[in-house]
Amino acid sequence: MAKRLRAGDVIPEFRFDTPYHPQQSFYELLEGDKPVFLVFLRNFGHPLTRNYIMEYIKSAGSLRSARLVCVVQTRPQTISRAIPEGAMPYELMCDAEGVLYRFFAVPSEKSRMKCFSLKAMKIINEAKKQGFRPQAGEAWQLPLTLLVGPAGRVLLAHYGATLTDLPEDCAAMEELAADLLPALPAEWLAAAPVADSFSAAFGAAAATPAEPAPAAPEEPAPAAPQADDETFETGFDTPLEAFDAPEPGGTQELDAPTEALAAPASPAAPAAPAVQPEAPKAPAVDFAALGFGAGN
């Protein structure tokens, strides 16, 4: 049964395919001292997916408090032909059949005004110049951002309201994780009881996902911290329709107190030139070989 995830839920164990290794354990992926961001995108050939894949590559060194896995609706062999193993600074999870998307009730939207943002329009329009042609009447797949701890514990779940309502880069993920993790209940970051598996063979799953077997009753999970709800009250992005609404009233303080301007500050000593860390090299992703809309 499709179910929207919430903070405190436990995702059942399942197996998935990467572009290079089949039947990987989800719970083994979560082992370690850092939680995992799961970012659900479209297929690997979609221009929006390409944009975020590359932004996450360029900023991968900024993510220190968590790890990243991007979920794409593309078959493993399609990606492995274009990207050599080890070239990506984070992992890809292949869900060409959309099993996880349906199981976690990731929505789609047909109204462009409801799901498009200014950023989405810019990305799509640029892709059209390069040959991208969206299908008439196509439902636009919305994103899902999860932060998952040991043994499948959901630490954060954000269902995107627009096509670009997800972290813009790894620096945004790091800022979010650094603020959120210290406020979470300690038991959420410890190993949770193993939940029943809902898919013994994720890579070869049927079109309709299997339901998880009922688990033994558990103690109610602590309520998610209020800060988490406040963080995602408006999401990462704004639908186009929101720009039609008048801005809330109010004034801003534009003038500084005169006493703060009376004495000029002493000139600071020249700072030593900052050492710029070397940015990770982008992998040789052959998008031309994939073509737009490559989903299998």
Q: What do these coordinates show?
A:
The chain is of the alpha/beta class. It contains ten helices and nine strands. The protein has helices at 26-29, 47-58, 76-80, 99-103, 112-115, 118-129, 170-180, 226-231, 258-262, 287-290, and strands at 15-16, 24-25, 36-40, 67-72, 91-94, 108-109, 140-141, 144-148, 154-159. The chain has a five-stranded mixed β-sheet with strand order 5-4-3-8-9, covered by helices on one side. Strand 8 and strand 9 form a beta hairpin. The longest helix has 12 residues, at 47-58. It is globular and about 50 Å long. The chain starts with 14 loop residues before the first strand and ends in a 6-residue tail after the last helix.
Please give the structural blueprint.
Elements: E1 15-16, E2 24-25, H1 26-29, E3 36-40, H2 47-58, E4 67-72, H3 76-80, E5 91-94, H4 99-103, E6 108-109, H5 112-115, H6 118-129, E7 140-141, E8 144-148, E9 154-159, H7 170-180, H8 226-231, H9 258-262, H10 287-290
Defining key terms:
10 helices; five-stranded mixed β-sheet; globular; 9 strands; two-stranded antiparallel sheet
Assembly annotation: single chain
* DSSP summary: helix tally: 10
Strand content: 5-15%
Largest sheet: 5 strands, mixed
End-to-end separation: 25 Å
Q: Which parts are unreliable, with pLDDT below 50 for 5 consecutive residues or more?
A: 197-231, 245-265
Gross morphology is globular
Query: Which sequence of strands runs across the widest sheet?
Result: 5-4-3-8-9
- Overall pLDDT score: 77
- Indicate the percent of residues in helices: 10-25%
Number of strands: 9
Radius of gyration: 22 Å
What structural category characterises the helix and strand content?
A: alpha/beta
Order of helices and strands: EEHEHEHEHEHHEEEHHHH
